[in-house]
């Protein structure tokens, strides 16, 4: 696998939304916390797969992102899109756990292995998104 050049790829940053806000979730109405957590991870994995595919196609879906994140992605699109396209096809996407309210995934592509962190807001939009070389 080719090494990933670590450029300013963190234009999409969890720093856009305070970690405490990302971690907030009203568990009062959940009878089964494990089932709720699994459903949330599934929603975030689905959104991450969709987002990676859209970015590789050169058509990020800004409607799936909060305004601040969409603006950051637009600003960095010229460098981010070719980088993600260069990763090649997604081979695997493995959930690694939760970090400061965001779900951590290890993505293995044809040409790269990366770590992704994604957090959804209460409205289901991506509130935080970061990727970096795995490790």
Feature tags:
single chain; 135 residues; alpha+beta; Nuclear Transport Factor 2, Chain: A; 4-stranded antiparallel β-sheet; 3 helices; 4 strands; 25% strand; disordered N terminus
Description of the structure:
This protein has 135 residues and is of the alpha+beta class. It has a single domain (9-24, 33-133), classed as Nuclear Transport Factor 2, Chain: A, CATH 3.10.450. The chain has 3 helices and 4 strands; from the N terminus they run H-H-H-E-E-E-E. It has helices spanning 19-23, 33-56, 67-86; strands at residues 90-99, 102-109, 113-120, 126-133. A 4-stranded antiparallel beta sheet has the order 1-2-3-4. Strand 1 and strand 2 (102-109) form a beta hairpin. The longest helix has 24 residues, at 33-56. The chain is globular and about 35 Å long. Residues 1-30 have low confidence and may be disordered.
Mean pLDDT: 80
DSSP helical segment count: 3
Report the biggest beta sheet as strand number plus sense, adding barrel if it closes. 4 strands, antiparallel
The strands making up the biggest β-sheet line up spatially as 1-2-3-4
CATH architecture: Roll
The N- to C-terminal Cα distance equals: 14 Å
Q: What is the name of the CATH topology?
A: Nuclear Transport Factor 2, Chain: A
The H/E string reads HHHEEEE
What is the count of structural domains? 1
Give the percentage of residues in beta strands: 25-35%
> What's the CATH C level?
Alpha Beta
Question: What is the global morphology?
Answer: globular
Signal peptide: 1-23
Keywords: Signal
């Amino acid at each position: 696998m080719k090494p990933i050049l670590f450029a300013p790829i963190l234009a999409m940053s969890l720093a856009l939304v305070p970690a405490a806000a990302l971690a907030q979730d009203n568990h009062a109405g959940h009878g089964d916390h494990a089932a709720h957590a699994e459903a949330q991870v599934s929603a975030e994995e689905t959104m991450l797969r969709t987002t990676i595919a859209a970015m590789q196609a050169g058509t990020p879906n800004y409607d799936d992102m909060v305004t601040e994140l969409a603006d950051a992605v637009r600003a960095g699109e010229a460098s981010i899109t070719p980088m993600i396209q260069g990763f090649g096809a997604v081979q695997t996407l493995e959930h690694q756990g939760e970090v400061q309210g965001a779900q951590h995934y290890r993505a293995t592509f044809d040409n790269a292995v990366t770590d992704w962190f994604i957090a959804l807001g209460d409205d289901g939009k991506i509130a935080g998104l970061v990727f970096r070389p795995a490790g």
